[in-house]
Amino acid sequence: MKNTLLLDVFNHKPVSRVPVWLMRQAGRILTQYKQTRSKATNFVEFVKSPNLAAEVTVQPVDILNIDAAIIFSDILVIAEAMGLPYQIIEEKGPIFQNKIRSEHDLNKLHIAQTEDYSYLLEAIKITKNNLNNRVPLIGFAAAPWTIMAYIVEGSGSKTFSQAKKILYQNSNLAYQILQKITDSTINYLNDQITAGVDVIQIFDSWAGVLNYDLYKNFSYPYIQQILKALNNKVPTIVFAKDAHFFVKDFNMFTSNAVGLDWTLTDKNIFNQVTNKIFQGNADPCLLYASEKTIKLEVNKMLQFFGYKNYIANLGHGLYPDLDVEKVKFFINEVKENSITYFKSNN
Amino acid sequence: MKNTLLLDVFNHKPVSRVPVWLMRQAGRILTQYKQTRSKATNFVEFVKSPNLAAEVTVQPVDILNIDAAIIFSDILVIAEAMGLPYQIIEEKGPIFQNKIRSEHDLNKLHIAQTEDYSYLLEAIKITKNNLNNRVPLIGFAAAPWTIMAYIVEGSGSKTFSQAKKILYQNSNLAYQILQKITDSTINYLNDQITAGVDVIQIFDSWAGVLNYDLYKNFSYPYIQQILKALNNKVPTIVFAKDAHFFVKDFNMFTSNAVGLDWTLTDKNIFNQVTNKIFQGNADPCLLYASEKTIKLEVNKMLQFFGYKNYIANLGHGLYPDLDVEKVKFFINEVKENSITYFKSNN
What we know:
Low-confidence stretches of chain A: none
Number of strands of chain A: 9
Largest sheet of chain A: 7 strands, parallel
Mean pLDDT of chain A: 97
Largest interface: A-B, 35 and 35 residues
Number of helices of chain A: 15
Oligomer: homodimer
């Protein structure tokens, strides 16, 4: 591997600067992405085309000069692999034709196996070949709760009240749904590792609609099951967005790192989370600001996290209307600022 | 006033039980509401019909036997009063035809005056008459940031990234927008008090897309301006939803009470917020659960808040598909549990 910065942080080796990658770095901010995207008829077909997915995965490495690639995919393909197809509707988000609201519904789903998502494994192999060991490749899946939220609701939601209804009304059904997703996700991520990914990130995008008790009961144990099943084969990151209520228990995850959203800026986090590498956590909207403001805020962020045991990133994915030049400026600021730090502190 | 429980809590007088009201208690969970609603052609017209608004305001007092009424209205009418009309589209939410994204856009708006929202003052007077001093009446407005979020974005949003863009790109424009909304809201709430409301609640529904620095800069000061302008004429409640990052500074609000969303269940809150009455904070989805679970969770909530200096409520508004019998059960549990507590602890 030529650029080992990310892996060095996971291995607690000394680094010359802070590694940086960005959630949704492959995507609509790049004109090259739009060109590739136009070759597929719809978003789900796009994600399921190994050559196209590999192409957009490598684009940000070439264009943004980033320290890791993340395989281009969608968190919901695991639901499709279990037997629940969906569409992504422009400006509306995902729509599932069938929803999972009973044991009968659940029984129609199967535990996803290699053949159900072989396109992704193929995309990983092509990407690894095209990256040619320039930077590590990150694989990912959503946390089981987040997948449950979508397949019960049948779409996005501000409250995910229908999914939460099952947690309150029929916890046994919830446990069954979550276990089937967990078993599928373990296969899915282990196969991604076999296909060549160097790091795994688990996205719990809808952690924030729960609270401490619900999270501890219905999300944390399933993420933990997955982490155990991956057996430290590669470094792992858990990103539980808006789970401020669970920060005090982030130590309990056996992942190497935790992702932090942009609302977590209290120093107290360092007293609560003592055994984790931090990843994050600039507000994506910061990249709308002037270069002067970005420079100031990047410095504040690096000082806050202390440069060591730290991976610079946003606290959520890039928004589609961000200017790619501002994105590059953010990345370069992380690099230059941290190079200066390590030069004068080593 | 026959039922003075809510006002007694604000006045730190002894009470025989915990007062309880529910956000969105007037609304789609009640069949009586749907009947009244059907008399207006659309939602905005409905809100602007004093007799209909008064009717649905009183319904939950009669049906749910609740300790306060809250005037039926919509947080966005203040934008309409400033010259920015909107519609509520079924299953989509509010849509503004024009958006406020420049000084030029802002100049077209005026500071709202009595005549711009006289229908609400009329509704308050009818309601007060119909309530006949049975329970206090709560008036409300949104926090200026929440109104800004909607009028810049032009609709609801998961991220409110267009509104946040202005905070990062053009803070002077943001301050101007927020000040015009603040000046309008001060008129609006002072007129509500003159018309007869007994308590004011300020809803900062989209606090949670900000972070500590943004909140302190762009939301807190404007809420505080409003609170000062109301000059303690009636008790006040600030409900900053998902503002977990600002809890440590809730003391700085000069309101009498703070509303808490359902994610705030850490005992640490009592060390951070020492000078406020608490209001909240059951997860609305709890009301989907069995009576047994509701009973257990109500007990947990009352024990957590300690019964005194406390107003029972949800941590967000009621969801439209909740069963009215479960809602009644929740209310009765708060009453019975707290009566037992005060009998054995006084």
